[in-house]
Amino acid sequence: MPKAGFNTGTAYSELFNVVDPVVLQPKGEELQGRTMFKLKPLPDPWALTYEWAWKEIMGQASDYTDRATDITTTDVTYHREVCYVAEKAAGFEYSQADLERSHTGGRNIDIITDRATATHDALANWEDALIFNGNGDSQRPIYGLTTDAETAGYQTLDDPSVTLQKVVDPNNKDAFSDAYKIINYFMDAASKITLLPGYHNVKPYLALPPKEYELLTRPLVNQYNPDKTLWNMIQRNGANSDGVFAGIKPVTELEAKYWNNEKGQAGKKNMGIVYLDTPDVAQIVIAMEPRRYGTAIPSADNGLSYKQMYMERSGGLSVKFPAAIVQLTGLNDGSETWAEAKTKAK
After folding, report:
1. What φ, ψ does residue 237 adopt, rounded to 5°?
2. Given this model, what pLDDT does residue 66 score?
3. What InterPro entries does this protein's entry cite (predicted)?
4. Dihedral (C-alpha) 238, 241, 246, 252: value to the nearest 10 degrees?
5. Which end of the chain has fewer CB atoms surrounding its CB within 10 Å, N or C?
6. Is the dihedral of CA 34, 143, 160, 345 positive or negative?
7. Whether the predicted model's global pTM rises above the 0.90 cut
8. Which class in CATH covers the domain with range 29-57+75-142+282-319?
9. What is the per-residue pLDDT for 238?
10. Where are the domains of the chain?
């Protein structure tokens, strides 16, 4: 006779189960916004705006004669700029039972902590989207890296005569001829910044979507130089062979699906960014880091469920010198022909 309380259909079979103590979760892309620019924390977490000033110097020297009274004078004008701060909140619910289960010994599932982490991540995702795409608010605008260049004041470059897809296509008979067209394109993009007054000796960074990053750093099909990449060829053209760019990094947020609202093939064109990361160019304004806001609020049912809120307040990307940011939109044509050619070549 079975013992009381012993379910032979379920509990007994579980005696022979091996339980993996690790709870798996989907891999996610690392957010890149904070890795590209430095943070500017505000002293007031509830600030509605962030102000900064730049000065305009005017005047020049003039001829002088003895007892002259018409000597020119110089002047300095200070211009004040205002950046807006936006805020978002997110929350999660949990029950008394969830709370007690999370403290049960021998378990590796803490649903309270996991839900809190998911809420925190939701705010981090919002901040990252704010940095790249802005807020789209015409009354209190915050511009992002992918905001229309004319609106934000960024520089642009005419599309290259060839795409990266064509250069690395195994069927391209003029790969090296086309390669130098791309090399000159990126050098021209860097010079958009280095030819600015006072920026002759700087080295900008290059941010590309993962696909374009892979194409630029992939060895070209050449039996004599099997390890030669477009990136190596670009960097060798810098002053004293010291590199044109300070570095290159793959940035998922620059893929078309995260910012491009065009239709059809045009809506699949990715973006590259050439930029300086110094505070005089741009900073990420943070008024309030994502944090728990207030205490848990009991639900209206039996009082055994609660809701906890988290909040973040951010000004996104505060761009002080937009000319030191260059948008590149001609690196791909929105098709996947390069992938087909790569597959056929295998």
Report:
1. -90, 5
2. 79
3. Major_capsid-like
4. 80
5. N
6. positive
7. no
8. alpha beta
9. 62
10. 29-57+75-142+282-319, 149-280+320-345
pLDDT tens digits for range 32-65:
999 999 999 999 999 999 999 887 788 788 777 7
Between β-strands 272-275 and 205-208, what pairing exists: parallel, antiparallel or unpaired?
Answer: antiparallel
Instruction: Please answer whether residues 330 and 159 qualify as being in contact, where contact means their C-beta atoms are separated by less than 8 angstroms.
Output: yes
* Residue 207: φ, ψ to 5°: -115, 130
To the question of domain 149-280+320-345 being in CATH 3.30.2320.10, the answer is yes
pLDDT band at 71 (very low <50, low <70, confident <90, very high): confident
pLDDT of residue 151: 96
* Whole-number average pLDDT of the chain: 84
Spatial neighbors of 248 by CB under 8 A, at least 6 apart, are: 205, 206, 207, 208, 213, 216, 217, 231
95-121: buried (b, 16+ CB within 10 Å) or exposed (e) per residue?
beebeeebeeeeeeebbbeebbeebbe
Determine the residue type at 198.
G
Average pLDDT over residues 135-145: 94
Q: Which residues contact 137 (CB under 8 A, 6 or more apart)?
A: 84, 86
